[in-house]
Amino acid sequence: xKRPKEFFPPLDLVRGRVELSHGSGGRATAQLIEExxxxxxxxxxxxxxxDQAAFEPPPGRLVxxxxxxxxxxxxxxxxxxxxxxxxxxxxDIAMAGARPLxxxxxxxxxxxxxxxxxxxxxxxxxxxxxATGVAIVTGDTKVVERGKGDGxxxxxxxxxxxxxxxxxxxxxxxxxxxxxxxxxxxxxxVAILSRREHLQFETELRSDSAALHELVxxxxxxxxxxxxxxxxxxxxxxxxxxxxxxxxxxGMLIRERAIPVRPAVSAACEFLGLDPLYIANEGKxxxxxxxxxxxxxxxxxxxxxxxxxxxxxxxxxxxxHRFVEMETAFGGKRLVDWLSSDPLPRIx
Amino acid sequence: MKYLEAFRDGDLAxxxxxxxxxxxxxxxxxxxxxxxGGHTHTLARYGLERLLPDNVEMIHGPGCPVCVLxxxxxxxxxxxxxxxxxxxxxxxxxLRVPGKNGATLMKSRAAGADVRMIYSTLDALNIAQxxxxxxxxxxxxxxxxxxxxTAVVVKxxxxxxxxxxxVLCNHVLTPAAMEGILDVPAAEAVxxxxxxxxxxxxxxxxxxPFERFASNYGYPVVITGFEPLDILQAIRQLIRQLNEGRAExxxxxxxxxxxxxxxxxxxxxxxxxxxxxxxxxxxxxxxPHSALKLRAAFxxxxxxxxxxxxxEAIPDHKACECAAVxxxxxxxxxxxxxxxxxxxxxxxxxxxxSSEGACAAHYSYGRFVNTAPTSNVPSP
Lengths: 348, 380
Hints:
- The complex is a heterodimer.
- Chain A has helices spanning 27-41, 44-47, 81-94, 115-132, 187-193, 213-222, 236-248, 263-272, 294-302, and strands at 61-69, 75-76, 79-80, 99-110, 135-144, 152-162, 178-181, 228-230, 251-255, 286-289, 311-317, 324-327, 333-335.
- The termini of chain A are far apart.
- Chain A has two domains: 20-162, CATH 3.30.1330.10; 178-335, Phosphoribosyl-aminoimidazole Synthetase, Chain A, domain 2 (Alpha-Beta Complex), CATH 3.90.650.
- The model of chain A has no long low-confidence stretch (mean pLDDT 92).
- Chain A has nine helices and 13 strands.
- Chain A is an alpha+beta fold.
- By secondary structure, chain B is an alpha/beta fold.
- Chain B folds into three domains: 3-59 and 181-251, Rossmann fold; 71-174 and 275-307, Rossmann fold; 322-366, no CATH class.
- Chain B contains 15 helices and 13 strands.
- Chain B has helices at 3-6, 10-23, 37-45, 71-81, 105-110, 121-130, 147-160, 174-182, 200-205, 211-215, 228-243, 263-272, 303-307, 322-327, 358-366; strands at residues 30-36, 56-63, 86-90, 114-117, 135-142, 165-171, 194-197, 221-223, 249-251, 273-275, 278-281, 285-288, 292-294.
- The longest helix of chain B is centred in the middle third of the chain and has 16 residues, at 228-243.
- Chain B is globular, with a radius of gyration of 21 Å.
- The two termini of chain B are 27 Å apart.
- Classes of the chains: A alpha+beta, B alpha/beta.
- The A-B interface holds A 198-199, 257, 263, 266-267, 270, 272-273, 321, 323, 325, 328-335, 337, 339-340 and B 2, 4, 8-14, 44-48, 50-51, 118-120, 123, 126, 228, 344-345, 355, 363-368, 376, 378.
């Protein structure tokens, strides 16, 4: 008599929860990887079920970057920890002027985390990766005891390749250079805050989480001698400008009137006592370019959906104190200081 | 009207600055004290002082409730936070004010104390309900603006029958602090010509408590809001009063401040709190009838009573000049340790901690001006 085949129940992705066994490296782990990660991310590397992914080195210099994502809440208007994990690392690669190619994805999951939520996050990552043209080629899964993790933490590491003529660096800002911002600031941070348990307020604001590599590509094509490029995430625009000022040994002067801020962001910042300059963005970039390129660069950016509100917001100047100053809306001047801590916890 | 835009109109501000320069009499100085820390913050954030003529000087007053609490108050909170089973709830700024030896509530968290930042008194109440096994203490600070919300949660705690909720009451009173500035021996007095009166305190207690500073003390007072145009308008009104030899209370913040104030809030405050005989203020010394404590009827919600707290008198750091800055006797940049040893990362005293503190405001927004501000008044 033929023995009936052993029956391994599939993952219950609707009502099931992550258990410690899913992180133990045994059959439960393999099942989680196969039935969720491999099934959703769906590429040859993952289907091979190796511990690593091999690929031919692309032409040009390699760029490697890593980022961990601990955002709370996990799901927010305009995105979730999954899409953020893809966009964030893709953007770090893009800010080197590089083309994003491959990502790894490591998950640290708390025991008891609903599989339905994990599925939602993984779907979101896959969607973001597909739209960006990157493949998630390898990963890791750990499970920690209930109470020792905040739902899920994700780390993504990314590889990209940058053409030889691109030379971006935080120390390349020079007096006379122009500072360009791709769009409104503060959207992501405020969207996150609107979902924090004790702060809930109604808003139509959504996170601006987006992959910026295409925008960067057209910017570099229009202005190959771009000096600096960065996405203002934690610490906001103020942090990036201060970092550049310090590393380049220069000062900066920006104009409040030129900086796009949505009315909903202004309003929320007012009643929470926050300054949009210090709030994280996940789909914006700031650039420093030689003065003669600035107008063309802004024109080119405005033709791309992620740069439609692009604007020159100020210039770099000589300053031994390396201050970033701002001309306020009526001609007064104030410092845009370098804060030592984030005004908001866990927003990316 | 969109308040944020209308009251921050740059063109209007420029025109006001020109008017102020025209009305200010070049033969005299105008020394105007803005009492509220919120006003200090606005002055710094919008660079308003650089729009004023050289003979109009703003003196920063002690209206920052974080700044005026002496180190002993912080130590009392730290002591409670370190006790096992206690959850200490506090507004954000208090977490970074240094107590003895640089200890802060934030650092005590890293050492294992359960200290939670809250935005509203109701958050503290919710925490008490969610954790009946813990004693939840709300570190209540502030002038009259924040006092009614504390009264509300004390009453709510009673209504809910909570046994584990307490308030560590450090609420202080504004008119008393203004008297503290003015009632000093002549040798120590800071020369002030007029006051920008508190904005949100006045929404609660009304504008009438400030009338006596005009009628009895002879100072012009203009109560104003926190937008930059509010402050420029108030400065203009003060200059006009001084030029005309008047000393009156004017209410520029009429969109939210009335003469009698919020009667319901005042009733709540009177029901739950009573005056302390005296209270030690950083910078102003011991002032009589200047602070509040819970009434005996609410003793079960009074952390001082339940924990038998006695407050230590702890001197400020040797180099700290917060006391002088709070009285308006020194500007932040005149303090020897300003922006050298004392910075927001490493504050020696309270003025460098709160965003309403004069030192923090100047450090964050204005320290690029190394000398006293020179005028940036635009030509008409």
